[in-house]
Amino acid sequence: MTPTFANPITDVATLSGNAVMGLRRWLSNVLFLHFDLWPWNSVGAIPTQALTVRGMRKKPQDETPPEPSGTRREYRYQHEPVLLHEALAFLQPAPGKIFIDATLGGGGHAASLLAAGASVLGLDQDLAAIMAAEERLAQHEDHFVALRMNYRSIGEVLEETGVDQVDGIIADLGVSSYQIDTAERGFSFQQDGPLDMRMDSQGARTAADIINENSEEDLARIFFEFGEERLSRRVARVIVKRRALRPFHRTLDLAEVIASVLPRKGKAHPATKVFQALRLELNDELGALRDLLENAPRLLKPGGRIAIISFHSLEDRIVKQTFARQSTEWLDRPEWPEPRRNPDLSFRLLSKKPVEASSEEISRNPRARSARLRAAERLSS
Ligand SMILES: C[S@@+](CC[C@H](N)C(=O)[O-])C[C@H]1O[C@@H](n2cnc3c(N)ncnc32)[C@H](O)[C@@H]1O
């Protein structure tokens, strides 16, 4: 049975025999592996907060994903995949190949990988994304499994299930249009909602906790480091002063206080950078990206490919620098008598410069404007 909002999914801790059988069947069918090789008894130890499997019916309590604002009658998970054709050109999906879609979202990229005949292990830490993708991709159930988890732990999960390596990985970073457009998720400074910003609604802290509890110095660091906000100290000072009178609970309240101290420059809302910073800090987005990139060489088969789509310079810099380090053959330093072979050499770059969206895509989907795609291929040794 396909999970729906009325009839959704389960935690790993409550995996029933049927679910394990389902996962087992999928893995054996899709990944062509033999049952006996799999450490099934340890499924419960998978380091995911919640693992969802097609056919499950229970969902964590208090976790009905909210609807995007303005669509109260019918749930809609809307997100248009960016740089889709460009990513597929790098990944080269084909029947028999296995891909990890590390950021499943609405399943846009995964749908195209599946349509090309590949199998997909889709990950997302957001329950709403998992449910939307499960519904959308129901027809591919023999070749698709969705796991609710942070992609930074994918190495451990694969180890746990015995899957050694895959043919490709795609990560389309950041938040989805659904997350931004759903005021109740608290990502938007343009709609009023709780100051939440958790991608994983089981996470312990919200953005309000950071704003109301972290020291002034720490807030300034966050705004500077993750928002590149030049006036970070001034913003932190005003926030700390205001919260002593009345703590922050709503997005618009915070956005207005920020706007009162920052000059408006161009079209961007003055709170843009601070909201980005809070989101990155709360969800440790850059830390998760670093972990994924460090794990990638051992997750990919020789010849396997990785494609990463980023949306701001902090993410793109990490991808660029990590790929550069992993694809440089010889290292040289003035103090060394001769160049040394790079012990981290594992990739060949598929594009020297990042691939950007065409003007046609940007006019159709303005979100694609800031997207940058970088890709690399796993070397054989
Ligand atoms: C831009 S959307 C992906 C959209 C998707 N490619 C599509 O075409 O529909 C990014 C998704 O990644 C998820 N995400 C971000 N960081 C994550 C992480 N560290 N682990 C798991 N999911 C993550 C978000 O919850 C969001 O649903």
- SS field, number of helical segments: 14
Label the structural class: alpha/beta
Strand content: 5-15%
Helix content: 25-40%
Backbone shape: globular
Instruction: List the uncertain runs.
Output: 1-22, 30-60
Q: What's the CATH architecture name of the largest domain?
A: 3-Layer(aba) Sandwich
Corresponding CATH superfamily of the largest domain: Vaccinia Virus protein VP39
Major pleated sheet = 8 strands, mixed
Q: How many strand elements?
A: 10
Order of helices and strands: HHEHEHEHEHHHHHHHEHEEEEHE
The CATH class of the largest domain is Alpha Beta
Rg (CA only): 22 Å
Q: Return the average pLDDT rounded to an integer.
A: 84
Number of domains: 2
End-to-end Cα distance, whole Å, is 43 Å
Bound molecules: S-adenosylmethionine
Can you tell me about this structure?
The chain folds into two domains: 12-177 and 286-378, Vaccinia Virus protein VP39 (Rossmann fold, 3-Layer(aba) Sandwich), CATH 3.40.50; 188-282, DNA polymerase, domain 1. It is built from 14 helices and ten strands. It has helices at 17-31, 84-91, 108-115, 127-136, 154-161, 177-181, 207-213, 216-227, 232-245, 251-261, 272-283, 285-299, 313-327, 359-364, and strands at 98-101, 119-124, 144-148, 166-172, 300-310, 330-331, 340-341, 347-349, 355-356, 372-378. The strands form two sheets. Strands 1, 2, 3, 4, 5, 8, 9 and 10 form an eight-stranded mixed β-sheet that branches. The chain has a two-stranded antiparallel sheet with strand order 6-7. Helix 8 packs across helix 11. The radius of gyration is 22 Å and the shape is globular. Bound molecules: S-adenosylmethionine. S-adenosylmethionine binds at residues 79, 81, 103, 105-109, 123-126, 129, 150-152, 172, 174-176, 199, 285, 288.
